[in-house]
Amino acid sequence: MSILQVKDLKTQFFTQDGIVRAVDGVSFNVDVGETLAVVGESGCGKSVTALSILRLIQKETGRIVDGSIKFNGRELTTLSEEEMRAIRGHEISMIFQEPMTSLNPVLTIGTQIAENVVRHKGVSWQKARDRACEMLELVRIADPIRRLDEYPHQMSGGMRQRVMIAIALSCDPKVLIADEPTTALDVTIQAQILDLMIELKEKIHAAIVMITHDLGVVAETAQRVVVMYAGRKVEEASVEDLFENPMHPYTRGLMKAIPRLDMDAEAADKRIRLQEIEGMVPALIDPIPGCAFAPRCPFATERCRTQLPPFVESTAGHIAACWEVERVRELAA
Amino acid sequence: MTDIVQPIAVAPTRKPPALWTSIRRNPTIFIGGLILAILTAMAIVAPLITGDPLRMTPAQRLRPPSEAWWFGTDQYGRDIYARTIYGARVSLTVGISVALVASVIGLAIGLICGYFRRVDAIVMRIMDGIMAIPSILLAIALITLTRPGLGIVLVAIVIPEVPRIVRLVRSVVLSIREQPYIESAIAGGTRGFKLLTKHILPNTMAPLIVQATYVCASAMLVEASLSFLGAGVPPEIPSWGNIISQGRSFFQIAPWSILLPGAFLTVTILAVNLLGDGLRDRLDPRLSRRM
Fold first, then answer.
1. Alpha carbon distance, N-terminus to C-terminus of chain A
2. Which of B183, B195, B204 to substitute to test the interface with A, most A CBs within 10 Å?
3. Which of A115-119, A275-279, B95-99, B225-229 has the lowest mean pLDDT?
């Protein structure tokens, strides 16, 4: 059963240069208790998708122009601001990329966690404080009672991200949106934070939408993956299918761009260079009639440039938007 | 030859008392605060340590400082020491109340301007307008329209100080509201008013406290200037400004009637500024870490 259904979501920003189609018709479902990864390079609309789900797009600059976001059967796009506030941080919560600046420097850790609990659960401050202490213990911060009265600058980046997770999970959310939660942390801490998130997710039966550009994070955490490019979904598959048999040329390009330790095993005499995807992400201002990846795609034909490719299903639940799926597959074989 | 390792006698390190470390770390806060504390104490117990500042002894006019008259007497034979100490009451009252009132009003307007962009455009133009008028001129105009008194002096000094606070608070709010932790608070469902009071307001406190000390010093100076010009507190209330003003005509034969109240004014302003500088260094996290 899916808890979050995003259908044909279109979010646009209105700039002086024109309309930026940051999210251009993205659909995906998140099942109860599942981890869905949304991958793509910078500027492909991952974060905007996340912000759109919580309706955090600033009114002055942009808005959701089309599509539907259903959470637990409720349509979020038409809710009032008041109703939306009750959902944010309570039923759907979010963890941001920058743990160093995502906590208010002038409020204690305890206040920041307890505040969320008081707001959504309507309990007393004392109860909320107990809950905060419990949450700090849960995210494995040592000496939680003392930490409650400390300020963010007294903590390291990894600890702050733990505090962010504690805040996000303090009201037992059904969906946790994590927007590149480990990008700003060093690799050893990254692994700890990811393990912690997965473990806690199971404990509180939440679903996670993991937004990342790191395929390593995807492989480690997710069950299903949505690959985004230029504001559109290009491929969706289970993690195993995606890594074993990527269908879309863009996904294949991403995979080739991962440095691997076993890369030169078969070609000891000649060094294999890390492959990059030629070209740049297109500007999202001009409407793209065909496939957005066509200008960078080695398989692109005239049809790719002019007609929007439909989703093709290979195995169950593995879909990709590409006209040339057959040719891509042949080449891989 | 065998090396014998001599145990090194370690002298027990004595921990300096907490007060001493805090003084050594923030000498400016300490000195400024101490001077202000002494002055405030003197102003409060003025009736106990001096005589009547208004009592005239015509036989003892323009006496130089002596054992009987510590700061000398003025042209009516009034005790300048008593007048100076009582004058501290006016200056400190003006300085502290202007700083408090201007901070509270400025904080409220600044928060609203920084947060509600539509209000901002209008209110900031009004603030610019007030700032364009020289504060002494504005104060004189206000005072001439009403009856002189301490109250109207306060109002007249507060009005030109408010825009300075507003600008400061507004600029802090504008930068804070773009911080990720504000977005994070919104993503947690915080409503607008709570966001402003609980998440943004505390961030404005450090710069506001520092600015308030400068406003305090500036208010004391403006009050002294107004009293000197005869537009300040009524002449029956001794204030440093009108003591200096009344002593002006006899400066050549009785310089003490100006120099000593003037010195008090200077030292007080210096103390407030020292306190402000110290607080600025202390409250700025980037600077305080160095110490």
1. 35
2. B183
3. A275-279
